[in-house]
User: Which sequence fits this backbone?
C-alpha cells in the first residue's frame, strides 16, 4: 500500500510560524513520525509540500494509478481552492483532509472547506496525530 501525503502553503514554515497555534515541530519532524509509523505498518508513504496550487493539482493527478490513498493538509487552500477539489474528483482516490489546529475554534473563514464534503473524513486539531489518525483510517479503509 502506498499513501501520498500532501502539504499546502506555509506548512514548510512549521516550527517557526505561529507555534502557539501550529506547535513547535517542523514539517520534517512530522514527516519523520509519519514515516516511522507507516513503516511499522508495512505502508509506503510519499511526501510532497508546495506553496503553489498548480503543483498540488499536478501531484494529485500523478497519484492516479500510483497511490492507494492521499492525506492532505491543504493549508489556506482548504478555504479557496476549487482547482484542488476538482483534481480530487478527477482521480477518484480516497483521501482524508487533515489540519494541525482545530479550525472550528478559529476565525469563521476557516470553518468552510472546499474538500471536506468529498473527503472520506476530516481530522482536525490533533497536531501531528491528525496525520497518524488519517493514515490509520486509510489503511483500514483500503483493507475493508
Assistant:
Amino acid at each position: 500500500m502506498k499513501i501520498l501525503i500532501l502539504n499546502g502553503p506555509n506548512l514548510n514554515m512549521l516550527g517557526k510560524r505561529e507555534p502557539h497555534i501550529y506547535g513547535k515541530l517542523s514539517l520534517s519532524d512530522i514527516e519523520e513520525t509519519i514515516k516511522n509509523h507507516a513503516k511499522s505498518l508495512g505502508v509506503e508513504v510519499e511526501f510532497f509540500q508546495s506553496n503553489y496550487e498548480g503543483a498540488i493539482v499536478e501531484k494529485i493527478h500523478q497519484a492516479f494509478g500510483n497511490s492507494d490513498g492521499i492525506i492532505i493538509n491543504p493549508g489556506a487552500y482548504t478555504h479557496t481552492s476549487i482547482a484542488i477539489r476538482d483534481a480530487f474528483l478527477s482521480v477518484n482516490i480516497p483521501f482524508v483532509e487533515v489540519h494541525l489546529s482545530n479550525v472550528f475554534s478559529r476565525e469563521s473563514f476557516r470553518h468552510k472547506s472546499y474538500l471536506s464534503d468529498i473527503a472520506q473524513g476530516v481530522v482536525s486539531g490533533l497536531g501531528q496525530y491528525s496525520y497518524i489518525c488519517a493514515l490509520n483510517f486509510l489503511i483500514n479503509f483500503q483493507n475493508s
In short: The chain has one domain: 2-143. The chain has a mean pLDDT of 92.
